[in-house]
Design brief:
heterodimer, A: mainly alpha, B: mainly alpha, about 70% helix, about 5% strand
């Protein structure tokens, strides 16, 4: 939800910026949106849908996560170079975050590592044996690994955000992803395009008139 | 038949409208961050 909040906050602040500067809010042209839907489907079954996530074996879940994130990387690659320069920063941030998460996930067996200390903070009321080092944490994307067993531990879910009632653990990649989504929806502007710069549009309009 | 064709054209026009495009992009971005990110915990705040 913290990442979803970044998307919604970017949209709301983008609307406010447009309203304050008395222009129409718009967002960049996104191509190949279907790739996101296709990429998310395996994760939907493996991690989100209660009816299926408990029955899917961990090996399939790791394959779903890696395959899905590779497809999302293709989506970013296809979109980033088609954007005008100003909009590219947001897509680059999204891409960097995704690569950071994907790297640490692949290097640690296909799931995002989280330390036992952070797991204890997240689940203070967990019954003994409900999680163990070296095993997947519940039906989520994380695997509990000691820091000295974790490759590139600094890219793992090492940060804790205290929220009312629950803490959230997140990675450096998550920070980049949140920043990228926020930037694209808040700062980007599709009204100025490299393909149709303002002066060209003005010239063609004048010629027509 | 013409009426149905007209309705279909209206439907396609609605899909191409700016607000529908913005809604589609926001939904796809929510799916993207859920798929690309890997935060853990937080109850309703997690994910």
């Amino acid at each position: 939800m913290i990442l979803t909040i970044a998307v919604i906050a970017g949209f709301i602040i983008g609307l406010l910026r447009a309203w304050l500067s008395k222009r129409r809010y718009d967002i960049p042209q996104i191509r190949h949106i279907w790739l996101v839907l296709v990429a998310f489907l395996p994760q939907w079954f493996a991690f989100y849908l209660p009816a299926t996530r408990r029955s899917i074996p961990d090996q399939w879940a790791t394959a779903a996560l890696i395959g899905s994130q590779l497809l999302l990387l293709v989506f970013i690659w296809l979109n980033s170079y088609q954007q005008q320069y100003r909009n590219r920063l947001g897509f680059w941030l999204l891409g960097i975050g995704l690569v950071l998460n994907l790297t640490v996930i692949i290097l640690n067996g296909g799931l995002m590592p989280i330390s036992p200390e952070n797991t204890s903070r997240l689940l203070p009321d967990a019954t003994p044996g409900s999680w163990q080092i070296g095993a997947r944490l519940g039906t989520g994307k994380d695997i509990v690994l000691a820091i000295d067993q974790t490759r590139l531990w600094w890219l793992s879910d090492r940060f804790l955000l205290p929220l009312p009632g629950h803490d959230v653990a997140f990675s450096l990649g998550d920070v980049f992803i949140a920043a990228g989504a926020f930037y694209v929806l808040c700062v980007s502007d599709s009204t100025q395009s490299d393909l149709f710069p303002k002066d060209v549009i003005k010239t063609s309009t004048t010629q027509r008139g | 038949m013409n009426y149905k064709l007209h309705q279909l054209k209206l439907g396609i026009a609605a899909l191409n409208s700016r607000s529908v495009r913005i809604a589609l992009v926001i939904i796809s971005f929510i799916l993207f961050v859920l798929g690309a990110g890997a935060p853990e915990g937080g109850g309703i705040w997690g994910g």
